[in-house]
Every structure is written in C-alpha cells, then in structure tokens.
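Worked example 3 (structure in, sequence out).
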C-alpha cells in the first residue's frame, strides 16, 4: 500500500529537536510535568466561545499520533451546533439514567461516588464544543475494498491523549465523557457503521464557580506507578 521509501531523520528540519544537554532535558521534562500537572477534568463550563481554528489545530495535533501501521484509524467530529449538542445531551442522559438507576452495577456505581457524577449532563450543551472521537475498525482502499486496522484502541487512545494535551496547552479545559452504550452517536452524527464512537470530549472554559472533585487531585506517586530496573 505504501512505498518502502525512507528519509533521513537528520535531514528533517527540526532545529528545536537539536541535542539537549542532560540538564536541559531535565528542565524541559520538569517544565512539561508542571504544565500537565495543572490539567484537570472540568465538568462546569462557561458559555465563553472558543474559535473554530483552535479546535481544528488541536485535532490536527491529535492526528500526529503514532498508530498501528500508520493507518491513523480515527475520526473526530467537532460540534458547536447547539441543536446537535442538545440531541447528544438528550440521548446521553437517557443512557446515563439507566446506568445510574442500576445498569452500571453496584461496584461501578460505588466507584463513582467520590466523583459525585449523575445522569444530568448540562455540560454537553453548555460547552462551546463537543469533539466525538471515533475509532475505525477497518479502512478502505480507493477502490472501496477493505483493509484491516491494527491496535485500534491503543492508537485512538494515544491520539485522544494528545488531543487532551493540546487542548490543555491551548488554555482550554475538557471533560472526557463516555455514555454507555454510545452507539447513538454513530447514527446521530451520520458516521459509517465501521466506526466505533469511543468518547465525547466537551471543550471550553471553566465557569467562574467550577469545582473539581477533591479526589481528582490525588495522583499516584511515581514510586507506585514505576518500577526501575537499572
Ligand atoms: N458515563 C457515566 C459514568 C462515569 C463513568 C466513569 I469510568 C467515570 O470516570 C465517570 C462517569 C457518566 O459520565 O456519568
């Protein structure tokens, strides 16, 4: 499908990828950690709008993610249309109602208690943008025949992480929302059947009285998430 040609990494015009000293590297790594430590999932949005160009650039950034065989098995639908947002909210709240009324199961519902979430999802209308991320189970050649995609959840997961990072660096807040089941998004947004909706990312600015759950500040210490074998 793709010609087996290569280009020299060194020949790419990447001046800011020049060799860093160990100190510079550590300082860059620290700076980025401090930036990312300030990312929080926010559920309360103001109605301050966000320019479409910003959303487009953040999605383009997500599209730089690595993927299985470089098939880039993702599609992003960016919605600011109030009527479509309203329809998504209504459909999501219908699914969430069943979930919180018991379909989620005791263990799951208990795990969510500290977050204080419920079936009301006003942010799906309030946030100026919703980005719905789809994973493509397979791709199509120009002649319409199918090819298989590889590591689809991993690839779309990485792209989603890069999207959240790009939004944060653009000064925005986001909320990853995963109504269960999410199939209604395929129909509502007119996407093909081979695409699986994986999450809705609500994007915007926090409201003046936005709150985050206290537990969200508790990240596991490095010693717990890392094993060092030197
Ligand atoms: N989809 C539900 C439930 C929910 C599930 C998880 I896992 C969360 O981290 C938060 C919520 C909802 O959005 O309310």
């Amino acid at each position: 499908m793709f010609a087996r040609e290569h280009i020299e990494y060194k020949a790419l015009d990447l001046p800011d990828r020049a060799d860093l000293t160990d100190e510079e590297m550590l300082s860059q790594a620290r700076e980025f950690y401090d930036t990312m430590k300030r990312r929080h999932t926010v559920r309360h949005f103001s109605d301050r709008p966000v320019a479409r160009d910003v959303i487009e650039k953040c999605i383009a950034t997500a599209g730089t993610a690595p993927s299985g065989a470089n098939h880039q098995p993702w599609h992003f639908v960016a919605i600011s249309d109030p009527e479509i947002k309203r329809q998504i909210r209504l459909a999501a709240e219908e699914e969430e109602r069943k979930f919180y009324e018991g379909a989620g199961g005791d263990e799951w519902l208990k795990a969510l208690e500290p977050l204080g979430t419920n079936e009301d999802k006003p942010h799906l209308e309030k946030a100026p943008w919703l980005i719905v991320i789809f994973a493509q189970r397979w791709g199509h050649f120009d002649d319409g025949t199918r090819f298989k995609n590889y590591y689809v959840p991993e690839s779309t997961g990485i792209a989603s992480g890069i999207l959240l990072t790009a939004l944060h660096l653009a000064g925005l807040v986001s909320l990853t929302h995963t109504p269960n089941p999410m199939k209604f998004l395929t129909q509502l947004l007119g996407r093909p059947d081979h695409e699986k909706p994986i999450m809705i990312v609500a994007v915007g600015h926090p409201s003046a009285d936005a709150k985050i759950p206290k537990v969200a500040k508790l990240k596991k210490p490095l010693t717990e998430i890392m094993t060092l074998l030197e």
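Notes: The longest strand covers residues 195-204. The pocket of 3-iodo-tyrosine is lined by residues 96, 99, 112, 115, 117, 177-180 (CB under 6 Å).
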